[in-house]
Amino acid sequence: MKKGLVLAAACAAFLIVGLQSAAGAGPGNVTCTDFFAGTAYDLTVPADNFCELSGATITHDLIVESNAGVGTHDGVTVGHDAIGQTNAEFDTTQLTIGQDLITQTGASLHLGKNTTIGRDLVASQPGTVQTGNACVVECESGPVKVGRDVLINGSPALPFVFDGICDMTVGRDFRMTGRSVTLGFSIGDEEACAGNGEPPVTVGHDLVVTGNSALSGFFGPSSLDVGNNSVGHDLIFSGNTAVPGGYLEVSDNSVGHDAICTDNSPALSKDDPDDGPNLAGHNNSCG
Q1: Cα dist. 247→9, 143, 175, 222, 224 in Å?
Q2: What does residue 2 show for φ and ψ, rounded to 5 degrees?
């Protein structure tokens, strides 16, 4: 009898522990190839698929595999990182990422209304990075916020490479380096941003644009434009080139410390008679 009571008590204790473990297990991993609006730990979009996220909660990582894409709207949250593999596509509105957005070669980033990245945006050899407007269910313009740094480096072997950066606030540094673009890029330039009803870019510390090349593409020679931005510390535009017929422009920026423009070919020029000088709190070699 005594042995039976001990066995019953042990079984009851095991059952209680099992119920507690199940209650505290948390969400599981999800693979999405169509639509998801629930809660997941890790959510993966497998290669060559697309997933629409509506109001979803991902407590850990969002992983978009090669040649796959994701569209977000209506308040999607990612607790940790969003990771894009080769040729991944992100079309985002109303998305909050707790830590980093990291992408590999050939990624396409269209970051629109109320996209917030808690730490860093790191895009290695992206096909395009465009901020301020994205089309998921519908096209929505609005602010994009990055808590620390934006690092965009290198270019893929693709025929159409372009960046358009508008309506973005960066907590620390914005660095665009080593890009070879066939359709050019603009960072906050009035013709690109204000023409679409979008404000330019605000950078808390340094805006660094170095070693980039504007090549010829489908529409002919391309250009690099940096204009109308607010930079807390230094603006550095150096070692950039454009093919004949293209141009390099740095104008109408407000810079807290130094505006440094050196070793660019051709020399800086303006594409609009309304483009004005840069204002710098200390040295200014950008005109």
Answers
A1: 82, 28, 20, 7, 7
A2: -60, -40
- 133 touches 196 (CB < 8 A): yes
User: Residue 229 has which token pair?
Assistant: 């931005």
Which tokens in the block code for residue 234?
Answer: 């230094």
Kindly state the helix (H) or strand (E) to which residue 162 belongs, with its residue range.
Answer: strand 162-165
Q: Do residues 98 and 61 touch, judged by C-beta distance below 8 A?
A: no
Q: Does the CA dihedral 46-48-54-60 come out positive or negative?
A: positive
C-alpha distances in Å from residue 98, one per residue of 79, 115, 236: 5, 11, 29
Q: Which of 215, 275, 273, 228 has its CA nearest to residue 255?
A: 228
- The two three-digit tokens of residue 18, written as one number: 């099992």
**Could you give the CA distance from residue 234 to residue 253 in angstroms, rounded to a whole number?**
11
Domain extent listing, the chain: 39-280
Which residue reads 């990291």 in tokens? 102
Query: pTM surpassing 0.85?
Result: yes
Q: What is the pLDDT of residues 38-95, one digit of tens each?
A: 999 999 999 999 999 999 999 999 999 999 999 999 999 999 999 999 999 999 999 9
- Residue 184, sorted as left (phi over 0), alpha (psi -120 to 50) or beta, turns out to be left
Task: Give 205-235 as a DSSP string.
Answer: S-EEEES-EE-EETTEE--EEEES-EESS-E
Contact 280, 255 (CB under 8 A): yes
